[in-house]
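lol ok so funny story. i was supposed to be doing the assay writeup but got distracted and ended up predicting the structure for this chain instead. priorities right. anyway since i did it might as well share w the group, maybe its usefull for someone
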Amino acid sequence: MTDLRARVGSVVLPNPVMTAAGTSGHGAELGDFFDLSILGAVVVKSLSAGPWSGNPAPRVCAVPGGMLNGVGLQGPGIDAWAKEDLPALSRSGARVVVSIWGRRIEEYAEAAERLARALDRCPDGVVAVEVNVSCPNLEDRSRMFAHSPSATAAAIAASKVCGRPLWAKLSPNTSDLLDVAGAALEAGAEALTLVNTLLGLAIDERRRRVTLGAGGGGLSGPALHSVALRAVFDCAAAYPGAPIVGVGGIADGAGAVRMLLAGACAVQVGTATLADPRAPQRVLAELCRILDSDGTESVGDLVGAAHEPPPALPGGTP
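and the output, tada:
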């Protein structure tokens, strides 16, 4: 049988399949459908220091190739989450990755500080913190943190007080992705999570109005998969050995394999979970079948294999 263990920086997971932030709730909601402890980890919906109401409805809509969401990072805040949701996650046996966000650098610091205090009271299960920098930076004309290497580095540095390994979740909506990734790693991120959603818009032709209440939204699902693969592949080539978590359009075991071959050491299942709450479990099972059937000894044997040159043909011609 294949050794499924996955290492993301200093974090060792029993397998490389996780949920993605924003698609599996704040707590143990998916536990009604399968045993959460079988996954590598559960990544909770992004949390700010305090409660945040999000955007006006409607917030989601189907589009060709996936969905748009304009939820706006609604959440209860770190303190309420730690009191109401974390205990159930801990009892489930799940390994937990907490996603945090802010609109200013000090808001990242406050979220990380509150999380550190919460984890002092309930330390079990939280293995890493994913710093979602794909958020509007109010100190930079609402440009995303993840569009600026310096802003990304500042957000990562401010989040160190949480006392857990940091993963930087980056945006594909920039031509400076490699510079931003390098800045995140230099600032102390142990891993990169690639990628967040693409900016998109839906228009209702009958009403002649934009569909979502906030105007635009984030495109996810199958249409994002090739974009995510490219981001993972390019960052793996630019920063050999840097741990990468691949996310974007993974809906089956083959999608997970492709992401690992591109250079990810672990993957997250997102939008597919909204259509099928058992999708992460299914992706893991399909991944196991694929690896067992082709005799792969270890998940690590796949990581980055697509970067290797093709074998030479007889006669020495590549």
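Residues 6-306 form a domain with the TIM Barrel fold (CATH 3.20.20.70). The chain has a mean pLDDT of 95.
back to the writeup now i swear
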